[in-house]
Amino acid sequence: MAEGSLISIRKNVSKLEDRAHQLSEQMPEILVDAKRVAHTVAHGIHGRRRRGPGETFWQFRHYEDSDTAGQIDWRRSASSDALYVREREWEAAHTVWLWPDLSPSMDFQSHLSDVTKFDRTLVLTFALAELLVQGGERVGIAGHMLPTSSRMAVGRLADTIVQLIAQSREGLSLPPLVRLNPHAEFVSIGDFLDPQEKLSECFETIASQGIRGHLVQIFDPAEETLPYTGRTLFESREGKLSLLTGRAENLREGYIEKLRNHRIALDQLAKRMEWSYLIHHTDRPAGEALLALHTKLTGQDDDYRVPVSTPSSKRKEKQSSENGEGAHS
After folding, report:
1. Closest CA to 296 of 318, 279, 281, 315
2. Number of domains in the chain
3. pLDDT above 90 as % of the chain
């Protein structure tokens, strides 16, 4: 192997080690922030209670043709002209597979936000895990950490993520194509800026296993509108691409249109798979995204597939909020 290649490998390994050490130092603060967000949201949500096998009474419902005579609650039915079936509460622990985008593109932070996309992704991942474990559910990282409902689950998530970062950040944008247990749920949090073909292959493979999924797309507000003018150098976080332009504002219209088309394609993919999809910006409170995501997980919303908001519509919503006409979400 050429000496230049060895030097390049050593530099990459050194960068990974530095990022892992930085993350280890940040992790206590991130975990504290995640717990704060989780506790704040927990006061405004209901648990993941549902009907299913168990001993605890859930609810009465009207008898259906598919029910057997043994399912009828005759005491309740005696006080009415209709027949009723007693349902019990589902008590088995549920598995939720988590996947935070750990790729270098998540390190982006503009002057319009106080946090990087990476930090916000970790806070949401840990806060959601905290809520789920409190509700008796199991959480794991697809392909890297087996599900657990232990009180130490969030700490184990953090340790696993630090280990993954220390090894390599390449290939950590999307989860590995591994076999997951059917009837589980899957939550992916990231910017989803990979090619549509790659996104479709990954998520459709997971959905084909009988898994219900939820996608949370994280964006820095500057990624919405490209608020740059004049001579500007754009560089990818992976260091593979760069673009120097004399008038960055000339790229804005084409960029916004391309971003809009990318989102529409992702929204259509989610609808085909009957998954939920929401967009969150790092200049907004983390609790907003966590509450919306938890609502989708519990199935408390009538239609969890939200319409895609374009960058222009986001600007209009923000202007309306500033004028007192409504809340920006």
Report:
1. 279
2. 2
3. 30
Instruction: Please enumerate in sequence order all residues whose Cβ is within 8 A of that of 102, keeping only pairs 6 or more positions apart, or say none.
Output: 118, 161, 164, 165, 169, 172, 173
Structure tokens at 76: 């309740």
β-bridge pairing 242-245 and 276-281: unpaired
Query: Strand 212-219 to strand 185-190: parallel, antiparallel, or no bridges (unpaired)?
Result: parallel
CA distance 73 to 75: 6
- Helix, strand, or coil (residue 144): coil
Q: What is the DSSP code (8-state) at residue 308? A: P
At residue 308 the predicted structure's pLDDT band, cuts being 50, 70 and 90, is very low
Element (H, E) at 68: none
CA distances to 37, 60, 127, 292 from 289, in Å: 10, 33, 11, 5
Location of structure tokens 């219209």? 253
Residue 316: per-residue pLDDT: 45
Contact 321/327 with Cβ under 8 angstroms? Answer: yes
- 140 in a domain, yes or no? yes
Are 38 and 178 part of one and the same domain?
Answer: yes
- Burial class of residue 120 (count of CB atoms within 10 Å of its CB; 0-12, 13-18, 19+): buried
- Could you please report the per-residue DSSP string of 232-273? EEEE-TTSS-EEEES-GGGGHHHHHHHHHHHHHHHHHHHHHH
In the DSSP assignment, the letter for residue 142 is T
What is the pLDDT at residue 303? 41
Residue whose structure tokens are 């789920």? 132
In tens, the pLDDT along 260-301 reads 999 999 999 999 999 999 999 999 988 888 888 888 887 655
State pLDDT tens for residues 104-150: 889 999 999 999 999 999 999 998 988 888 878 889 999 899 998 88
Give the domain range for residue 230: 14-48+94-322
